[in-house]
């Protein structure tokens, strides 16, 4: 231990540019460190102690990074909140996390303050970045405080809330390590070294998705602790991403397959305008990537496209470009400190090539869903856990995903995996985005429905639906073809690429009982 970690690196060289805001504002590491130190002093005067929590409702940029850096050296839990939530949903997280301070950015003032009132947090513990009526300016915490390192530094942690597709979201809480913050940060860098990522000022990490997502925080935070510059995007845009990669000589980023689809849809002359020779580790996850889409990205960017599968709760797999080319469609093999188990309905391991429920574990890492021991235990199989995904391992131990158990369609007693159908439909040039799910069918139990967002400039029509379905000929057995296609102007996705399938599916099931 001893060479990595934001605080250590910044003491050695306070001049390095640690972050670049979406508006282009650059932040020296030394300035960020002093601001974080002042914040720790101010919150400690307010009574915060080791093990307490703070919440932040802030857009991508240095303000959120400030909260992260303060919490992780003061022994606090930091919970970044999804800014798409409503006031009551925000209030639930502030209350459930037992936050001792809540930070609201002026962009999210209205819902943030509704949340603050609903959470029951004391009014004098709500702080504003910018102008937020009813909240105290953050400067009240920091003005006049020392910029020197606080005493008794100890490692904090992030506590992210799961997306809550089945009921209320739950905070994934890990015990605090009691370690020196820089030593803990250096341990975190293990995640990026799995991909071969190296430390050093010559690297820049592009933050493409909202920082309230676990993976975005983990990859960005870890890159910072390796001395990389964090370049923040406010809203993802295909050409803007290429421009930023060119301008800042980006070496690594964290993406999702819908980003690839939109990048590939750019005209050839737009793609050719930007120098992408700096790209070395472009990592993707969060959803299955159609095999032709991944091939197209490898052809364009070269062997810098890495894939992994993991969960907020811990554990996962990694597929290098070389792994993936050997086994197209794989999400890789288990991390060195992780284990993968695939089991049947009786929780017995299944043979290679047989789909089952995926369980994972990460050695030496414990977690609980905060305040919900029953949910924690329900997801466990001894010391493994599941998030409900279905997949299989091949003879070499490479994992392939089929789908979420909750999304599986049972039609005429046959298990059908929508992800397989979505991957085939997604490659059609007239399809911008697609979702497949089961809808009620009196004879078969469920029938297959596809909802398609047409490519830009195309109007929905029966002819378009017929053309898209016809493209499955010879590529997918007829039993897996959607019975019908409905069109939608824009697919309901979270900014990290996660499809909100329940929003699409629920209207079709109103008045029906659903077995799954």
UniProtKB/TrEMBL annotation:
<dbReference type="InterPro" id="IPR000873">
    <property type="entry name" value="AMP-dep_synth/lig_dom"/>
</dbReference>
<feature type="domain" description="AMP-binding enzyme C-terminal">
    <location>
        <begin position="420"/>
        <end position="498"/>
    </location>
</feature>
<dbReference type="InterPro" id="IPR042099">
    <property type="entry name" value="ANL_N_sf"/>
</dbReference>
<comment type="similarity">
    <text>Belongs to the ATP-dependent AMP-binding enzyme family.</text>
</comment>
<protein>
    <submittedName>
        <fullName>Long-chain acyl-CoA synthetase</fullName>
        <ecNumber>6.2.1.3</ecNumber>
    </submittedName>
</protein>
<feature type="domain" description="AMP-dependent synthetase/ligase">
    <location>
        <begin position="11"/>
        <end position="369"/>
    </location>
</feature>
<dbReference type="GO" id="GO:0031956">
    <property type="term" value="F:medium-chain fatty acid-CoA ligase activity"/>
</dbReference>
<dbReference type="Pfam" id="PF00501">
    <property type="entry name" value="AMP-binding"/>
</dbReference>
<dbReference type="GO" id="GO:0004467">
    <property type="term" value="F:long-chain fatty acid-CoA ligase activity"/>
</dbReference>
<keyword id="KW-0436">Ligase</keyword>
<dbReference type="InterPro" id="IPR045851">
    <property type="entry name" value="AMP-bd_C_sf"/>
</dbReference>
<dbReference type="Pfam" id="PF13193">
    <property type="entry name" value="AMP-binding_C"/>
</dbReference>
<dbReference type="InterPro" id="IPR025110">
    <property type="entry name" value="AMP-bd_C"/>
</dbReference>
<dbReference type="InterPro" id="IPR020845">
    <property type="entry name" value="AMP-binding_CS"/>
</dbReference>
């Amino acid at each position: 231990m001893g060479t990595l970690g934001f605080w250590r690196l910044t003491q050695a060289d306070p001049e390095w540019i640690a972050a670049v805001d979406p508006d282009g504002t650059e932040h020296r590491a030394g300035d960020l460190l002093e601001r974080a130190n002042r914040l720790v002093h101010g919150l400690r005067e307010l009574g915060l102690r080791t093990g307490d929590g703070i919440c932040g409702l802030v857009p991508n940029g240095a303000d959120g990074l400030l909260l992260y850096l303060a919490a992780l050296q003061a022994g606090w839990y930091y919970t970044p909140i999804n800014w798409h939530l409503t006031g009551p949903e925000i209030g639930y997280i502030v209350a459930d996390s037992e936050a001792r301070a809540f930070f609201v950015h002026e962009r999210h003032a209205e819902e943030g303050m509704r949340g603050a009132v609903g959470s029951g947090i004391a009014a004098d513990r709500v702080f504003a970045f910018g102008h937020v009526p009813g909240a105290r300016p953050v400067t009240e915490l920091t003005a006049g405080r020392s910029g020197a390192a606080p005493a008794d530094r100890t490692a904090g942690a992030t506590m992210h809330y799961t997306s809550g597709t089945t009921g209320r979201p739950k905070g994934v809480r890990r015990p605090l390590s009691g370690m020196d913050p820089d030593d803990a940060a250096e341990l975190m860098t293990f995640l990026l070294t799995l991909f071969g990522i190296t430390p050093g000022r010559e690297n820049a990490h592009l933050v493409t998705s909202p920082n309230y997502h676990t993976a975005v925080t983990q990859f960005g935070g870890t890159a910072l602790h390796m001395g990389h510059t964090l370049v923040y995007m406010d809203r993802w845009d295909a050409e803007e991403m290429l421009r930023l990669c060119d301008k800042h000589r980006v070496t690594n980023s964290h993406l999702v397959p819908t980003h690839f689809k939109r990048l590939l849809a750019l005209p050839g002359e737009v793609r050719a305008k930007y120098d992408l020779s700096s790209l070395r580790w472009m990592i993707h996850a969060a959803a299955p990537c159609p095999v032709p889409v991944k091939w197209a990205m490898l052809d364009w960017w070269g062997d810098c496209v890495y894939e992994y599968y993991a969960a907020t709760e811990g554990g996962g797999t990694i597929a290098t470009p070389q792994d993936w080319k050997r086994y197209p469609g794989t999400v890789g093999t288990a991390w060195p400190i992780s284990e993968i188990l695939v089991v049947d309905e009786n929780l017995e391991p299944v043979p290679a090539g047989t789909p089952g429920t995926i369980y994972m574990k990460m050695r030496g890492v414990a977690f609980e869903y905060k305040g919900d021991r029953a949910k924690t235990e329900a997801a466990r199989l001894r010391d493994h856990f599941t998030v409900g995904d279905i997949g299989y391992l091949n003879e070499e131990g490479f994992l392939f995903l089929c789908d979420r158990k909750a999304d599986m369609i049972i039609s005429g007693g046959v298990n059908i995996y929508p992800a397989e159908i979505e991957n085939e439909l997604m490659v059609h040039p007239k399809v911008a985005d697609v979702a497949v799910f089961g809808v009620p069918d009196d004879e078969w139990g469920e029938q297959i429905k596809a909802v398609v967002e047409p490519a830009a400039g195309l109007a929905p029509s029966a002819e378009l639906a017929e053309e898209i379905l016809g493209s499955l000929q010879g590529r997918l057995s007829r039993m897996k073809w959607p019975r019908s296609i409905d069109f939608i102007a824009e697919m309901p996705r979270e900014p990290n690429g996660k499809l909100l399938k329940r929003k699409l599916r629920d209207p079709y099931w109103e008045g029906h009982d659903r077995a799954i």
